[in-house]
Amino acid sequence: MNGYRLLTTIVSAGKGKLIVKSAVDAGSFGGTVMSGRGISPSSIAAILGIDTKKDAVFIVAESEKKDTILNAIVDSTKNEKKHLGCIFVSDVDSLSRTGEIIKTEGGNSMSENTPNDLITVILNSGYADDAMAAARKAGAGGGTVIKARGTAKEGDESFFGVQIVPEKEMLLIVVDHEKKDAVMSAIQKLECLSQPGSGIVFSSPVSQFHLLGKK
């Protein structure tokens, strides 16, 4: 039974197609590109409201092809601008194809001593910058915000008790493992997350974190 990994790439807007093409050429099934915006780790840039448009690319790959695909993506960006973005890997413990749910060998394979963690925050639209500010004070760098929306009818609570009807923002932050608890705690204390159903914060271990673009 094959294992699977999720390769997440955050790059400058318009470069998602490059990432998917290089992944497919290396043996990937394909990928999903979503539009978002980056929040600069610079406090001065944040004060000035300088955000950058981003493409977030999500690719599920077979474990034995993961390194080949990852290396192909890294190689494809070597002649791109410096600070193009980053790529990291996380586990996939189940996969559904053609209606069948497949348990894989990917789950819980990463060491608890992984150097980095992905913190995902889903909250009502307009509050991602508050969450990022709190995360930065606790030691995080920058993050990427993706616009989202709920699919339930008004009044429903369907995802860990979170009301998912209003417009949402999903904030992705990669932090050093030793900073994870402090960053999550800082976000959880925000007033905008104080009411039941107002949002959710969760973390996932990641590995093979690479910066993309010219060195």
Element layout with pairings:
Layout: E1 4-12, H1 16-25, E2 32-39, H2 43-48, E3 51-62, H3 63-76, E4 85-92, E5 94-97, E6 100-103, E7 116-124, H4 128-137, E8 143-149, E9 167-176, H5 180-188, E10 199-212
Antiparallel strand pairs: 1-3, 1-4, 2-3, 2-8, 4-10, 5-6, 7-9, 7-10, 8-9
Q: Could you characterize what this model shows?
A:
This protein is of the alpha+beta class and 215 residues long. Helix content is 23%, strand content 40%. The chain is built from 5 helices and 10 strands. The strands form 2 sheets. The chain has an 8-stranded antiparallel beta barrel, surrounded by 4 helices. A two-stranded antiparallel sheet has the order 5-6. Strand 5 (94-97) and strand 6 form a beta hairpin. The longest helix is centred in the first third of the chain and has 14 residues, at 63-76. The radius of gyration is 17 Å and the shape is globular.
